Structure formats: C-alpha cells, structure tokens
C-alpha cells in the first residue's frame, strides 16, 4: 500500500529544517509523525448502526401492533437485515461517515494508542539518554499529542506539552498545519535545550523529518 504524502516536499523540508535547528541546541531528539487517521472505525460504527436498527425497530413494532398492522416476525427480521446490509454497504463506501458515528472519546483513544505505537515503532524510546520526543498528529480525529521519553518526563511537567499541543491545534484549525508543527517543534526544542543542552558531541540519533502514515 502506498501512502499519499499529506504535506508537500517544501513543507517536509521546512519541518526537517526546524527539527535540525531545535536539535542543534539540545542533546534531545525530536520526531514527527503525521497520520491521516488512526483507525478505519468500520467495526465500531457497524456496531452502532446495528444497535440503532434494533432500538428503532422495537417502537416501530409496537406502533404497528397499535395500528392493527400484521407485522410478522419474518417480515420484521427481513427488514432489519435489509436495513443492516444497506447501512454496512454505505459505511464501506463512505469512510468519513464512520467517524460521525463513533464517540469522540473512542476516536481520541484510538489516536493515542496509535501515538504510543509510533513512539515504540520509530525507536524513540531507545535514545542514549532517553530524551526522545514524538510530536504526533492524527488528522481525521483532529488529535495531536506530544509524547516524551522517561528522561524528559522526570524534568518537564505535562503542562508544557499541553501548551505545545494547543499551539499546534490552534494553527491546524486555521488551516496552517505546517506552521503549527514548526511552532510546536520550537516550543519542544526550547524545553529540551533548557533541561538537556547540547554537549561537546551531539549525535543525531533519529531522522529529522516528518513521517506520513
């Protein structure tokens, strides 16, 4: 499967330059991952649709009985199955519709789980001094997160990362995603430079570019 790039080459280059600039002042490492979505949400949305069909069919059955309509069990079951099949076909054809049927807390949880997977898969947790930071964005969920390794979490309070995420999300709302990522890299780099300044040797342990997934 080929993943279409979310950002242009110029935007990729700009982010890479921002990471290199930030890392020149610190022994920490910054890594960026930009996801189009963190799940396809087919099964959660299908469950919601199936449950909704069952719930709606119950009062309809009661009303049919009240109006003296002979609604046989086979007819009711056939109608439910037809509605379910049509709904599932629509969910398969319209991935964006699935997001509208999934609760916000589930979308955020899936995005956070994806961020954790990326943190481990990209080896951000194996830097020499445990000073790796992941800037993660999942576009479909409108979700952003800054994940820091153990060496950083011991010194930098979570409020600093919350401020960085707010900067990114506010820029993204204005359609300025790249500006938001670059600004967030600057904020993260400033925190790292304060607590983990660059030493005499400052090896680059992680790639200085944003990954599209």
Key terms:
213 residues; four-stranded mixed beta sheet; 8 helices; 4 strands; elongated
Provide a descriptive summary of the structure in words.
The chain is of the alpha/beta class. 58% of the residues lie in helices and 11% in strands. A hairpin with a 4-residue loop joins β2 and β3 (143-148). The mean pLDDT is 87.
List the helices and strands and how they pair.
Elements: H1 9-23, E1 29-35, H2 42-66, H3 73-93, H4 95-100, H5 104-121, E2 132-138, E3 143-148, H6 150-153, H7 158-173, H8 177-195, E4 210-212
Parallel strand pairs: 1-2, 1-4
Antiparallel strand pairs: 2-3
Helix pairs in contact: 1-8, 2-3, 7-8
Give a short overview:
With 213 residues, the chain is an alpha/beta fold.
Number of strands: 4
Tell me about the largest β-sheet.
4 strands, mixed
Unreliable segments (pLDDT under 50, ≥5 consecutive)? Answer: none
Radius of gyration, CA atoms, in whole angstroms? 24 Å
Task: Report the span from N to C terminus.
Answer: 11 Å
Q: Name the structural class.
A: alpha/beta
Q: Mean pLDDT score, rounded?
A: 87
Please indicate the percent range of residues in DSSP E strands (runs of 2 or more).
Answer: 5-15%
Give helix % range. Answer: 55-70%
* Spatial order of the strands forming the largest sheet: 3-2-1-4
The helix-strand sequence is HEHHHHEEHHHE
Number of helices: 8
The general outline is elongated
